[in-house]
């Protein structure tokens, strides 16, 4: 089972901030963390704001000291590894902004070879190959002569991932790699991470706020709940057993298991029974929920809507108090419902 | 997934950088010759080359002027220009602040304080010139005091910079720390005799001519040590460009790198300030000019470039300060400020705001 060899594993890890200065007592962010990260696996770290996602990533990267417990990198305790040895096991992409210019993408990616180069940082043939490979695998080839200052957010993220790749570590940890990116860039970054994990057998852990994306992209989820405990599992299992919902539960903000997304709107109007063509139902449901109707999948409501897919378009028929109304647009449907 | 072996042919071009280095070296040589050729006494270039080559000349005064005054002065300019510029570069990287530099963050003020303390503690020793005449031991004492003064201010600023990440705030604090040290020097001046004050004031104008020939090697040792340390720190300096966290995650020891950078900067800025007085704006301006010329922030290239550019610029400033053809000499720090301040303004305008990058 070399494929599931654990790269990073923790033992009763407690993360947080030590007592210092005005803070008399240490502040625990999360505790009893017993997780492991395996080769070839993409793991998504989720949790409400302030739940300690960044702290965990920084702790696992060795940038932040744990309060207690242990971290093992490829089987050896992190405490026994030098900074340099640890940097050959784990590379990171952080949210820290780059504030420098006059540095080409190629130079930046080359810095990733630091754990392997000598005191002056000169690259040998193997280093050069690794850098070229990292640039190639991330699709950063066209960027190599560009100044890092003038990259777009998406390009910069890609280049920082290339730098982490050049570091040639079995694990890559990324703190919110998709923040500030538009949808195509987000998808591109996630695809890149998945490809890297599966093709190079690297372990990839990334934190995100985007639950939808996480559910689709991750092989496993690490959920930090409000009690500072971490629950792990396959995304679908965590959704089906209600764990996912409970972690993000808040007043008037609930996860809809049937759609895999969050309900933005509180139902305030009468229930509607919706049936018909699946594609039509999916989009009609959105429109109805946005307008405040409660959509049901079982009959027995006064209001009933059926969606039919015709050759060129969809058609909606609304049944209310035994009268039938018809519409051929969602807009028309909504205005009919309003008049009833 | 492409295999690494396919990419052997991918080579990154360093472009026209070797050409720029060639030009810089040529420029330093040219300005060195100009510097020793121009002055209140006009010595033809042919005679300079002749004298430098060891030949005899009918004007024995020319030889004396060259060997005893102009060459030590030009060599001091090269050492001071290189040292202050690399000191400034180290600080800009350490603080990740485009406006950091020995004079801006109060490092030279710290060196001044160190010098002042030595003068005061000496009691009977009346001035820096008296100490320098004491021999090499006295010079080392002053360099040590100035470097310790620099290091003290640098450490203080560094401690503050850990708490305050904001560039502008840090600069203002640096100015204030500089003011405090200047105030301490003023208090010392208040209780001093007029002769001491006069000597000190002349020292604060800055001078490249104050290093006697037999002590030039001390300045050289300090500058070479500081510069060598800086070069050896190239790799961690490059790491620090990406921030402390990235530097650490790439296996670099940030804490020890910081210490070595401080030691190196203190030696460079302190050592030069001890002998030449505070020379402002070279340290902040030259790294920017070099970055723009070479188009890189890679310290393995940037440090040698900055060394050469600093030497070149201070040689040029010194030529202006000498005011060829007249007997008057301007204070060197006035000339460097006139040249350096516009560069700083240009940097600020180009960046539009100080939070952004260098």
UniProtKB/TrEMBL annotation, chain A:
Transmembrane parts of this sequence: none
Organism domain of life: Bacteria
Domain called ABC transporter: residue spans: 8-251
Pfam families: ABC_tran
SMART domains given in the database record: AAA
SUPFAM superfamilies: P-loop containing nucleoside triphosphate hydrolases
Protein name: ABC transporter ATP-binding protein
Subcellular location: Cell membrane
UniProtKB/TrEMBL annotation, chain B:
Keyword ATP-binding (UniProt): no
Family: Belongs to the binding-protein-dependent transport system permease family. FecCD subfamily.
Compartmental location: Cell membrane
Keyword annotations from UniProtKB, A to Z: Cell membrane, Membrane, Transmembrane, Transmembrane helix, Transport
Coiled coil: none
Top-level taxon of origin: Bacteria
Gene3D superfamilies (alphabetical): ABC transporter involved in vitamin B12 uptake, BtuC
Transmembrane regions: 20-53, 74-95, 107-131, 138-162, 168-188, 200-233, 259-289, 301-322, 328-349
Membrane topology type: Multi-pass membrane protein
Protein name (record): Iron ABC transporter permease
Organism encoding this protein: Fodinibius salsisoli
Cross-referenced InterPro entries: ABC_BtuC-like, ABC_transptr_permease_BtuC
């Amino acid at each position: 089972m070399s494929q599931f060899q654990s790269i990073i594993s923790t033992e009763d890890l407690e993360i947080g901030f030590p007592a210092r200065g005005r803070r008399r007592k240490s502040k625990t962010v999360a505790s009893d963390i017993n997780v492991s990260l395996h080769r070839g696996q993409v793991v998504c770290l989720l949790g409400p704001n302030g739940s300690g996602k960044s702290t965990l990533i920084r702790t696992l990267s060795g940038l932040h000291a744990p309060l207690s417990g242990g971290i093992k990198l490829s089987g050896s305790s992190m405490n026994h590894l030098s900074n340099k040895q640890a940097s050959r096991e784990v590379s990171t992409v952080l949210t820290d902004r780059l504030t420098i210019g006059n540095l080409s993408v190629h130079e930046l990616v080359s810095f990733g070879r630091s754990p392997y180069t000598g005191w002056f940082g000169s690259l040998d043939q193997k280093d050069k190959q690794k850098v070229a490979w990292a640039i190639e695998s991330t699709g950063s080839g066209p960027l190599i002569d560009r100044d890092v200052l003038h990259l777009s957010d998406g390009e910069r993220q890609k280049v920082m991932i290339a730098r982490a790749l050049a570091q040639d570590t079995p694990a890559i940890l990324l703190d919110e790699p998709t923040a500030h990116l538009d949808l195509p860039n987000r998808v591109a970054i996630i695809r890149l991470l998945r490809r890297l994990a599966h093709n190079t057998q690297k372990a990839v852990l990334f934190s995100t706020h985007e639950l939808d994306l996480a559910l689709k992209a991750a092989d496993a989820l690490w959920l930090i709940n409000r009690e500072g405990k971490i629950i792990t599992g396959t995304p679908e299992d965590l959704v089906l057993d209600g764990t996912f919902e409970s972690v993000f539960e808040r007043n008037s903000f609930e996860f809809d298991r049937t759609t895999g997304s969050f309900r933005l709107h509180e139902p305030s109007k009468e229930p509607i029974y919706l049936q018909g063509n699946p594609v039509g139902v999916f989009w009609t449901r959105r429109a109805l929920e946005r307008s405040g109707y409660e959509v049901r999948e079982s009959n027995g409501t006064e209001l009933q809507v059926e969606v039919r897919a015709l050759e060129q378009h969809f058609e909606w028929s609304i049944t209310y108090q035994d009268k039938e109304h018809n519409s051929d647009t969602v807009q028309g449907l909504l205005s009919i419902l309003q008049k009833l | 997934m492409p295999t690494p072996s396919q990419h052997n042919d991918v080579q990154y071009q360093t472009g026209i950088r070797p050409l720029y280095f060639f030009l810089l070296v040529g420029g330093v040589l040219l300005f060195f010759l100009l510097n020793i050729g121009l002055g209140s006494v006009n010595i033809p270039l042919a005679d300079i080359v002749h004298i430098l080559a060891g030949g005899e000349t009918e004007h024995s005064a020319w030889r004396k002027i060259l060997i005893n005054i102009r060459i030590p002065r030009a060599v001091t300019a090269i050492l001071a220009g290189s040292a202050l510029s690399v000191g400034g570069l180290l600080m800009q990287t350490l603080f990740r602040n485009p406006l950091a530099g020995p004079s801006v963050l109060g490092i030279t003020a710290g060196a001044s304080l160190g010098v002042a303390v030595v003068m005061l503690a000496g009691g009977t020793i009346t001035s820096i010139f008296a100490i320098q005449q004491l021999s090499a031991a006295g010079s080392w004492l002053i360099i040590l005091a100035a470097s310790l003064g620099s290091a003290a201010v640098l450490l203080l600023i560094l401690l503050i910079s850990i708490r305050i990440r904001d560039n502008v705030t840090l600069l203002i604090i640096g100015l204030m720390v500089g003011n405090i040290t200047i105030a301490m020097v003023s208090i010392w001046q208040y209780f001093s005799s007029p002769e001491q004050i006069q000597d000190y004031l002349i020292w604060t104008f800055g001078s490249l001519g104050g290093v006697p020939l037999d002590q030039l090697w001390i300045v050289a040792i300090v500058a070479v040590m500081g510069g060598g340390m800086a070069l050896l720190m190239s790799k961690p300096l490059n790491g620090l460009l990406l921030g402390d966290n990235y530097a650490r995650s790439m296996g670099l020891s940030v804490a020890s790198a910081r210490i070595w950078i401080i030691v190196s900067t203190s030696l460079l800025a302190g050592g030069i300030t001890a002998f030449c007085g505070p020379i402002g704006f070279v340290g902040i301006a030259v790294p920017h000019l070099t970055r723009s010329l070479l188009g890189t922030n890679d310290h393995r290239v940037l440090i040698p470039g900055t060394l050469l550019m600093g030497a070149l610029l201070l040689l040029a400033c010194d030529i202006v300060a000498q005011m060829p053809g007249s007997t008057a000499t301007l204070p060197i720090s006035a000339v460097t400020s006139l040249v350096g301040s516009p560069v700083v303004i240009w940097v600020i305008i180009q960046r539009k705001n100080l939070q952004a990058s260098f």
